């Protein structure tokens, strides 16, 4: 198990960059005061990793939240993603500049391809490699890439992706994909770790929460970290942002980690990377 110490702890990417293993996701957080306050609350409470995307339409608010927080930009691990309609070499370079402008920064800590688009993503990746070599971004990766998407991309890359951000929760463990990423030194990262709220309905989660005297969210987020998976739960409520991060005073037993693993049923709450139409 990778060492898990505190809210500012990191996992090391294969290029040596330290990526905080816990962060704030801002999907569906409205641009303006909602996302600004969420980012400020998270950073002021000790978070150092903020994950957004062009398609979330809240990059400006994220940038404002960082500026208005008590934390210097250089101490924030800032992530964004190139959207499908911007994939391709030249359009990715333009999309990157547009994201930087909206975020009010001159670099990103991680830039991701949001969804796999076959050969088009290979052109996108060439643009990402250029941005990386030019030191415009500290690390580059992908999101929603299954093993065959990764294998296809790896046939043409100079730089292996540093991260793969996937839907990940007890109903969608995809251990073989996780193992493949680990074998190729691609850091796994979870989106939708709380199963879009459905995790709270599971009796087994209620039992584990009672056993450890923790919330259901804290149990599943701690499980992510003990699996070596970076996690970015989303919330715009200050009390939940603070509670979600209260993960560092307990450890789930190996037996209970396996119990959560055993819930896997290949169930998605988000789109299927092999079958989406956007």
Protein described:
This protein has a single domain (about 15-260), classed as Alpha-Beta Barrel (TIM Barrel). Helix content is about 40%, strand content about 15%. It contains ten helices and ten strands. It has helices spanning about 35-45, 60-70, 90-105, 120-135, 145-155, 175-185, 205-210, 215-225, 240-245, 255-260; strands spanning about 10, 20, 25, 50, 75-80, 110-115, 140-145, 165, 185-190, 230. α1 crosses α2. The protein is globular and about 55 Å long. The chain starts with 9 loop residues before the first strand and ends in a 17-residue tail after the last helix.
Summarize the structure.
With 278 residues, the chain is an alpha/beta fold. 38% of the residues lie in helices and 13% in strands.
Distance N to C terminus: 37 Å
Strand order of the largest sheet: 3-4-5-6-7-8-9-10
Number of strands: 10
Query: Which regions have little confidence, pLDDT < 50, spanning 5+ residues?
Result: none
User: Can you count the helices?
Assistant: 10
Strand content: 5-15%
Radius of gyration from CA coordinates: 18 Å
Which architecture does the CATH hierarchy give at level 2? Alpha-Beta Barrel
CATH superfamily: NADP-dependent oxidoreductase domain
Helical content, roughly?
Answer: 25-40%
Average pLDDT for all residues: 97
CATH topology: TIM Barrel
Counting helices, strands and paired strands, the structural category is alpha/beta
How many discrete domains? 1
């Amino acid at each position: 198990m990778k060492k898990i110490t505190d809210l500012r702890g990191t996992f090391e990417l294969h290029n040596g960059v330290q990526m905080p293993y816990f962060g704030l996701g801002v999907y569906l957080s409205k641009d303006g005061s909602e996302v600004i306050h969420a980012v400020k609350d998270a950073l002021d409470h000790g978070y150092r990793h903020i994950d957004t995307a062009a398609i979330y339409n809240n990059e400006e608010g994220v940038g404002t939240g960082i500026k208005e927080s008590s934390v210097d930009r250089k101490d924030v691990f800032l992530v964004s993603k190139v959207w499908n309609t911007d994939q391709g070499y030249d359009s990715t370079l333009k999309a990157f500049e547009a994201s930087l402008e909206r975020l009010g920064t001159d670099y990103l800590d991680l830039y991701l391809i949001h969804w796999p688009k076959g050969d088009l993503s290979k052109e996108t990746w060439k643009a990402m490699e250029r941005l990386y070599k030019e030191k415009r971004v500290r690390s580059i990766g992908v999101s929603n890439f299954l093993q065959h998407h990764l294998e296809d991309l790896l046939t043409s890359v100079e730089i292996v992706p540093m991260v793969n951000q996937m839907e990940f929760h007890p109903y969608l463990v995809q251990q073989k994909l996780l193992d493949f990423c680990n074998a190729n030194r691609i850091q796994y990262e979870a989106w939708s770790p709380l199963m879009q709220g459905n995790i709270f309905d599971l009796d087994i989660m209620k039992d584990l929460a009672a056993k450890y005297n923790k919330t259901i969210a804290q149990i599943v987020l701690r499980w992510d970290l003990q699996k070596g998976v970076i996690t970015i739960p989303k919330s715009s409520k200050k009390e939940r942002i603070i509670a979600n991060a209260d993960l560092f005073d307990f450890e789930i037993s190996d037996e209970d980690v396996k119990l959560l693993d055993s819930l896997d049923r290949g169930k998605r709450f988000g789109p299927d990377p092999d079958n989406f139409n956007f």
